[in-house]
């Protein structure tokens, strides 16, 4: 809990710096790159968490890894985390930054669970459904789950729309179980 609040404070400070220089979108892209890179590399995760590796060495690795790919504000974050011996918080800070950036820009993230990966046509239809449900557009995060059989489950904030085949089967099963089904024979 304490670590989450600290990460949020760092993220807010970075967002303020980025707003002052007009580079908040670029820093957001950098933060997403950092989160993806850390998530994909077990070695990088281990190195950042290791109490044996010096903070300066961790900073050198991050600068070598992200050198030309990230903004100076992000490089400054690496140095600040090195000074404060908080390199382990980098991933949490990057995640918090993207959350508060989206909030700052009034952007929503829609999680769409489908049986197969989304195509462009499906994304457009889902975007239309998001606008119908919430009144705003959102960036779409696709989660593939073959267990829903077909259709999709859309979650935007606290609104959920379930148009999956498995949900329709469950509703039909409930109707049969409750005895509301009357055969027309």
Automatic annotation (TrEMBL):
Membrane topology summary: Peripheral membrane protein
Protein name as annotated: ATP synthase subunit delta
Main location: membrane
Xref: Gene3D superfamilies: N-terminal domain of the delta subunit of the F1F0-ATP synthase
UniProt xrefs under InterPro entries: ATP_synth_OSCP/delta_N_sf, ATPase_OSCP/dsu
Taxonomic placement: Bacteria, Pseudomonadati, Bacteroidota, Flavobacteriia, Flavobacteriales
Protein species of origin: Tenacibaculum tangerinum
UniProt keyword annotations, A-Z: ATP synthesis, Cell membrane, CF(1), Hydrogen ion transport, Ion transport, Membrane, Transport
Keyword Cell membrane (UniProt): yes
Subcellular location: Cell membrane; Membrane
Family of this protein: Belongs to the ATPase delta chain family.
Superkingdom as given in the UniProt entry: Bacteria
HAMAP family: ATP_synth_delta_bact
One Pfam assignment: OSCP
Function: This protein is part of the stalk that links CF(0) to CF(1). It either transmits conformational changes from CF(0) to CF(1) or is implicated in proton conduction.
């Amino acid at each position: 809990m304490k670590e989450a609040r600290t990460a949020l404070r760092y993220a807010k400070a970075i967002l303020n710096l980025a707003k002052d220089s007009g580079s908040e979108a670029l820093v957001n892209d950098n933060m997403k790159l950092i989160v993806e890179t850390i998530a994909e590399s077990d070695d990088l995760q281990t190195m950042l968490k290791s109490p044996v590796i010096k903070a300066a060495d961790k900073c050198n690795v991050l600068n070598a890894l992200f050198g030309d790919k990230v903004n100076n504000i992000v490089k400054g974050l690496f140095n600040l985390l090195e000074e404060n011996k908080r390199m382990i918080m980098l991933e949490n800070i990057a995640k918090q930054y993207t959350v508060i950036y989206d909030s700052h820009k009034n952007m929503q993230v829609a999680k769409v669970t489908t049986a197969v990966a989304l195509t462009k046509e499906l994304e457009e239809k889902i975007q239309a459904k998001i606008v119908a449900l919430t009144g705003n557009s959102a960036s779409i995060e696709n989660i593939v789950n073959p267990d829903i059989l077909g259709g999709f489950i859309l979650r935007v904030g606290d609104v959920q729309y379930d148009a999956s085949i498995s949900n329709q089967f469950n509703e039909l099963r409930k109707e049969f179980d409750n005895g509301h089904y009357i055969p027309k024979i």
